[in-house]
Design a protein that fits this description.
Strand content: 15-25%
Low-confidence stretches: 2-26
Number of strands: 7
Radius of gyration: 16 Å
Distance between the termini: 37 Å
């Protein structure tokens, strides 16, 4: 009994907090309308309002972030498995060349845009990367995931299917 409590408290609680944490300057976004934004980098443009009616995974990342790099293959796989989801990846990279090389080298075929001024991230209170906001079809933020969640996890997949 003592070991089970240790296992739960020592391992599972921190894991739950990391994967569903609501850190940042705007932790109260869950259950509220997702802040709308338009970001254009000369190559791509994302206007969040254009995705109303779809479930959106809004992912903030950058090419020098180890958890972001680790997460990207899972996001790409999810994108291929669930093309009905709008996976919008907003990079904060300042170096356009590094950003473009990353996309090519890692075969990133998600909708992505570079936002070096972090205009969109600031609207969401994002200060650490990666962070992903799950937004429902009505434009309401339902979850905020911090770090590198396992996008193939059946619980996450079931949750996305429920929206």
């Amino acid at each position: 009994m003592r070991f089970a409590r240790f296992l739960f408290t020592g391992l599972l609680v921190p894991l739950a907090l990391v994967t569903a944490c609501d850190r940042g300057a705007a932790p109260g976004l869950t259950g509220k309308a997702a802040p709308d934004f338009t970001v254009s980098d000369g190559t791509s443009t994302i206007h969040l309002a254009n995705y109303r009616g779809q479930v959106v995974l809004l992912n903030f990342w950058w090419t020098e972030c180890a958890p972001c790099i680790q997460e990207m293959p899972g996001l790409i796989e999810l994108h291929h498995d669930r093309p009905d989801l709008a996976i919008l990846a907003v990079s904060i990279d300042e170096d356009e060349g590094a950003y473009k090389r990353f996309l090519v080298r890692r075969n990133v075929d998600l909708i992505t845009v570079r936002d070096p001024e972090q205009r969109a991230a600031k609207l969401y209170g994002t200060e650490g990367w990666p962070e992903t906001y799950i937004i429902d079809r009505k434009g309401i933020v339902r979850r905020k995931l911090v770090g590198d969640p396992d996008w193939s996890n059946p619980a996450i997949r079931a949750y996305l299917n429920s929206l």
